Amino acid sequence: xxxxxxxxxxxxxxxxxxxxxxxxxxxxxxxxxxxxxxxxxxxxxxxxxxxxxxxxxxxxxxxxxxxxxxxxxxxxxxxxxxxxxxxxxxxxxxxxxxxxxxxxxxxxxxxxxxxxxxxxxxxxxxxxxxxxxxxxxxxxxxxxxxxxxxxxxxxxxxxxxxxxxxxxxxxxxxxxxxxxxxxxxxxxxxxxxxxxxxxxxxxxxxxxxxxxxxxxxxxxxxxxxxxxxxxxxxxxxxxxxxxxxxxxxxxxxxxxxxxxxxxxxxxxxxxxxxxxxxxxxxxxxxxxxxxxxxxxxxxxxxxxxxxxxxxxxxxxxxxx
Length: 320
Prior knowledge:
By secondary structure, the protein is α+β, with helices and mostly antiparallel strands. The protein has two domains: 1-131 and 280-314, no CATH class; 132-277, no CATH class. The chain contains eleven helices and five strands, in the order ααααββββαααααβαα. The protein is flat.
């Protein structure tokens, strides 16, 4: 069972030390918000896949070269367990039980969150149809809500909707309004709600895992940074920074299914835009990014390699 133990150690290392590795790789001369997003979401995806692969490692450890395919593995597993005794049955049974429980918890949590999100969107759509009007502002189709609140956000689903209140338009200049609309459009175009929803789902389903907890905290910030960068490229840093200042702290939370212009910390976002980027060579940025990606992918690659090794490489028959 040595390979199973080593594979478990690799997954545990990713769970505990993964956040430190990613923070170190993305600080200062990092790959930027989009690259950092890819690393965090990738690490969060590798974690459950690696855990699932551990179950396969446990089975392959017992079966060895008898694994020929999915159906054959199931048949051989039963035969191998009969020959290994009750200890092997208990080991594989516990692994399979844990795997099934993890899948069930992930599915149940996803079902609950999905149902809550759909319920919120249906209620929100009714509110828009009753009180909002559709308009085109600066080339963007928006829902304009007559309200004194200063708010702007986007809602996924059905092609996506950008919502802005009349109170926000009263305090924003045309260029600042365009920056806000570009920011929200970047959320919809980038599918940012899917990234945020995925990491939050994993953190909710498997609480207490440092990697997943940090990803659920970091990814919502990174999607705001990525949307800010697109708005700044198209409109300019000045209009975006002033828009963030005018709308910061003046709106209510639109809902968990929406991404708001006031998300993350507006002060940190403005400081990031106006602070000159560090002078880093492209080679250093790529080296750190690739190194972090390899570290993140290592546990999954290792568990898959261990599965193949246990299934294909014949056991060593050593003579005393």
